[in-house]
Input
Amino acid sequence: MKKKLDAVLTTIENAVEAKEYDKALSLIEENVAALFSSRYLKPVITLTGNIPEDRFITPIQKLILGWVCFLCADSQRMNRILAGMEPDSLVTAVESSIYYSLKAISTFMDNREEALGYAQLSVEAMAKDPKSFCAAISRLTYGQLLSSVGDHRKAAHEFFAAYRIFRKHKSYLPAVTALVNYGIKKHALGEIADTVTLFRNELTACSRYDSVFQLLKLPLGIAFFEMNRQNLAVEYLESAKELMYRLDFVQMYGVLEMYLVYAYSISGMYSRAHAQIDELAGRLSRLNFENISTFCAALRVHVNLLEGVPVSDSDKQLLEAEYLANGKNTPIGTLLILARLMLNGDIDSFSMNDLLSWEESPDTVKNVPFAQTANILIAEYYYRMREMAYCQEYLEKAVAIYTNCRLSARFLIEKAECLNLLREINRDLYNLVKSRQDLKPSHVELTPREREILSLMARGLSNRQISNQLCIGIGTTKWHINNIFNKLQVKRRSQAVAQARKLGLPE
Output
């Protein structure tokens, strides 16, 4: 089969070089399913780009060109091709399906509901030929759009259906694309054990067909991170990253690196985590990704907090600026980082009510690992406020996710005092948390604001007087004092001042 396709590709190359464009396009049409596989995709895209646009005459030829433009991120040209076509001019189901898939992609940013309608029409157009290559393309596209609106359950179904069809057609790159996306959705749904079993089996069974199946190590690495099997997480993610870059698998840029940073930092490999963030920033910048600075700032803060070193003002300002612009609509990943910064005494601007609002929304079932993190942070917030009943409630929610889904890594990321309560809730988790030597820092690190407030406390000022002098709210003052008490492990002002003197902290 490979020898035959190699010969076909050579014939196409010769035809393009001889400017026999009709012959080249006919061969691409006849072999489109096999040619759009990992081994042949790049050269086919290059060859298609070398054919003058006015030689794409039939609807299917124009649609193939439109699809190539999409793969090359040339949305402007793709939209121009679509604008020159009318649905009534399409004769076959394949033509209609590809047209509606491209329409869905082109309209998604402006009108998501309309885009999902187009994507569904694309799937329905192939109802009489549900096992065809084009049916798989339509399902993959529909799954990607469903994923973007947070319908992970339905998206996972479409991805897996697409995978099985692509694999049947031996079109391995889109097959792996579909299955990796399926794994990411299963991760968001908290179904980690299912992911590990399925992907290990598929990796073993399919790697002999094509090396592209090594990309299945990506969702496996993420699953191993969540299960706190960090050596395996690093091994699998590093292996998948090398292949991902070689194949320009841009769909997963940012996702893999984020979890690799998580695995490095939870394992104490902080310098490797920072190097990975720098590499990611450079790569995403060259590809013109959006919000790169904020994304990388969030990753750096994540590492800094685990490492126990001060967070840079520039990173805090970037994250706060996004929060001030979007409020409770800030992406959940950023909200979680902001909550950590607030609990660590680094920022005053964040309202825990916004994280509580997200935790109480239906969105929690769309990202179970983030929901677990949110519950731990909210439990710590109530622990600091001495609202122990609420603290216990949210901590038990986080433990329930561990019990049902076996997600344990999030408990090791958060350096939260409330985790001592795990002794009475889940002894296994408690022992796991206590086994981390760096659960409590060996030195006390007060923020500049906390040092300032401690100094005023030492001078005998009341909470109201401190608030007036620093021009902050009384609630914010109490919050900082609670943080000081927790860090110094004291319960009263006099103890805090005495302990600060023992530690050599300036007043």
Q: What stands out?
A: Confidence is low (pLDDT under 50) at residues 437-442.
